[in-house]
Amino acid sequence: MAAISSNLLYLNTHRSPPFSHPQSWFQSSTRTKPITVSTIKAQASSRKEDIVIVGGGIAGLSTALALHRLGIGSKVLEQAVSLRTGGASLTLFKNGWRVLDTIGVGNDLRRQFLEIQGMVVKSEDGRELRSFRFKDEDESQEVRAVERRILLETLANHLPPDTVYFSSKLANIERSENGEFLLELVDGARLYAKIVIGCDGIRSPIAKWMGFSEPRYSGHCAFRGLAGYPEGQPFEPKVNYIYGRGLRAGYVPVSPTKVYWFICFNRTSPGPKITDAVVLKKQAKELVSNWPSDLLNIIDRTPDETISRTPLVDRWLWPAVTPAASNGGVVVVGDAWHPMTPNLGQGACCALEDAVVLARKLANAINSEPASIESALRSYEAERWPRVFPLTIRANLVGSALQWENQLVCSVRNNVVIPKLVRLGPLLEHTNFECEPL
Ligand SMILES: Cc1cc2nc3c(=O)[nH]c(=O)nc-3n(C[C@H](O)[C@H](O)[C@H](O)COP(=O)(O)OP(=O)(O)OC[C@H]3O[C@@H](n4cnc5c(N)ncnc54)[C@H](O)[C@@H]3O)c2cc1C
């Protein structure tokens, strides 16, 4: 993967036109053919950037694509040398698919990933506690596990060439005298931007600059991996959950040849970062050594490069305590703003939702006279906060309940609550999301 040169973006000191001449400043170039994301060459340029998106993950690429479809150009700075391949897979519910359709990539992805019909919940001895069919609860529900790498490549391939700049790690951001923002990259490159969209994930330097606290560790970590079955995987298109004491696991077919799995376990502190796949696989298998053999076989079939262990973190956006989502022309999106634990499978879905809401509001502001970018960013927060704040809390509480260790509590959960009391429909109401076409 080629890196861009460090002199990609030069410091330019002359004054830029005001927002009142939007067309010439924000116009998105017309895409003639999909880009390949492997090599992006620098174009020496002395112009400033209007909209810079920091972070080329799900939030960054979907925001760039939503803006592009509204005729607004942007540049994405990604610290890595290529699109992220880690993180194995993500389960996307119907709200995520609504957004992917709106930005024009839903059907490309549907062709590659299986539709998941339902879920089965088992206890650690393999006893089935309950099963559900998603469409019985909600005819419009759509659930698929997608490979993160393919999701990112698909988003990037729908962007105009030269939108994503790799090896471009933001080191520092400052407000300049004329109200623009000076972005300094670790390699010394500097650029000015009128609008900065922080899509730089849970350790976001942009969020830090805006005064957000570090995300808080939830007390749980997750192993995850993507098992390969070149000869075809044998599982029904269902999410399989196995609940133990202070420990739970799951697996779900992603495609005809791949199966995603995870194990969540309690740990008082996140512990050291481990990248050795042999150690990770050994630790994962030890946790579930007496559990149904399907799970152990799936772990055995996991290529080293797809296995990881991640501490689960979140940030609760308490009103009056937490900084606003925007500060002048800087705004945060996705995990940079509202990291949430994965217990509802909603972090990426919400990042996608953020992207279309923000893009629509920005485009309206840019195309109006006079442009009011700051009020558009405040309106984005006003619309999104009531959505993401309760979800973050709910995801955390669900995680705590599922990670109980007490034997009596787990017995009541497995013998009474799950078989007799749980209704899936209300539990998935949060996947309702109206998404107008762009
Ligand atoms: C175990 C686990 C399971 C999950 N399962 C699901 C699921 O099933 N469904 C779901 O919807 N969500 C799930 N999530 C949540 C989901 O992964 C995140 O919400 C999603 O990745 C957020 O996307 P993002 O673009 O905001 O952040 P990220 O994906 O973290 O992307 C941030 C990008 O910014 C880049 N970056 C960071 N710093 C800089 C810098 N200084 N300069 C330039 N670039 C920078 C990074 O390299 C990265 O590419 C899960 C999370 C975990 C941990």
Automatic annotation (TrEMBL):
InterPro entries: FAD-bd, FAD/NAD-bd_sf, MOase. Pfam families: FAD_binding_3. This is FAD-binding domain-containing protein. Residues 50-388 form the FAD-binding domain. Belongs to the 3-hydroxybenzoate 6-hydroxylase family. One of its GO terms (molecular function) is FAD binding. Keywords: Monooxygenase, Oxidoreductase. The keyword Oxidoreductase applies.
